[in-house]
Write a structure and sequence with these properties.
Layout: H1 3-27, H2 35-103, H3 107-124, H4 134-155, H5 163-186
Length: about 190
Amino acid sequence: MKNLTKLLLAIIFFVLLGAIIGLYYRYTSQEQQTIFNLATLLGFYVSIYGLAVALWQIMALQNITKSTQSAVAQTREKVEQILSISDIAKIVTTIRIIEEYINSEKYELAKLRLCDVKDFMMRVEFIGKIELDIEEFGRLKKRVEIDLNSIDKQMSNKAKLDKIIFCQDMEEIASMLSRIENQLKSK
C-alpha cells in the first residue's frame, strides 16, 4: 500500500473510532458505561474495520494478479514467437547446409539434417498465429519424405539422386519457412 493510502485509512479509522466513542458516551446510560461494554464495542468496530480493509486489499491484490497474469501470458507468447523465429532461421540455415552436403555427395550427413527439417516441419503447424497454406505445406512435407527416400536409394546405389530437383525442393521449403519467419517478425 502507498503511504497516502495508509494515512487515509488511519485518519478514517481514528475519526470513526472517535465518533463511536462519542456516541457511546452520549447515548449509553451511565450504569451501562462499563469498560467491558466499551471494549466489546471497540473490539466489534476494530474487527469490522479490519475486515473491510482486508477485503479492500484482497480486491486490490486480485487486480494486481490479473494484470500480472496478463503480462506473463504476453511475455510467454513473445518468447515463443522469438523461439519460433530462431528455430525457423536455424532450419533455413540447415537447408542450405543440406544442399552443400548433397552437392559434395555427403549423403549420410544430408540425410541426418533432412530428418531435422522433417521433424521441424511437423512442429510448424503448431506455431500459433501464422497463416499457412496447408495444401502447399503438406506438399512440401511430402517432398521432404520423398527426398529422404531418394537419399536412401542413392546411399544404397538403387537409384541416382537428382540433385537439381532435390535442391529445388529445398529452396521451396526454405522460401516457405522464410515467409513464415517474416510473418512472425511482423507480429
